[in-house]
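Morning!

This is the sequence you dropped in the shared folder:
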Amino acid sequence: MTCRKKERRWEESISIGVTRMNLCFQIKSIVGFLLILDFQQAGTKAEPRRAVQGPDCTAIFAANASLPSGVYRIKPKHFHKSFEVFCEKRYDGGWTIIQRRDGQGVYGGPENFRRWMSEYEKGFGHVEFEHWLGLVYIHALTHQRDKKCELRVDMRNCEGKKGYAVYKTFEIGNEDEKYRLSLGQYRGNVGDAFRGREPSENQDGNFFSAVDSDNDDCGPCFVDDEAFDSCAGELYGSGWWFSNCGMADLNGMWHPKDSCRGWVSDFIRPLSFVHQ
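The structure's back. Tokens below.
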């Protein structure tokens, strides 16, 4: 795979620029359940539900397989509050979307992902449209007792070609741990952009950075011989688990369809923590 500052593409089984991304995960028990983060297009809207349906989307659909994809209220085990998520039935079981990128925010245009750390912690956007669920909630979902999590990223390019990346395990740390990322074994057809090509590009094990919270390893970082002191604040303008800036950033600046070449760089070098 190759990577340039102004043009980044997948160069493996496929080479595409992403135009739609969603991030969702599925939680399952140790005996077969898993947690998946996956970028996908929204499914059928479920009827509004005020009551808590379950600890996560996987449990909800396991209890009632006839329920449609849509918005549900969940309360992860041992977490102090409930919250709404978009549950997706595609693939096997129920997936909880934690990020969606398709250029369609709740007010019509793209959601702004250039946010402070406090906003990345609590989440922003609307779960039926472009959004980021929130680091606090992602941590709660990935730390339910007796449950393992798997991350899946799906992508679609301007020509409709699709790609995916799956990580066998996935979790993030808490606030004191700066939401440190932990990923398991990779499989897919777009390349492992989280770990990159060089050791310095590996984002597995890194802290989360935002425009006002610099936790990357830059001092400075160099991209095409240009120096940057902050990946989040200067180069990408978004929150992510940057390591020497690296090859993955699924929360970067949105590119519309007519200018999507190299757009994948915003999400991940070859993939997208999205269709995302």
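Headline: The radius of gyration is 17 Å.

More detail when I'm at my desk.
O.
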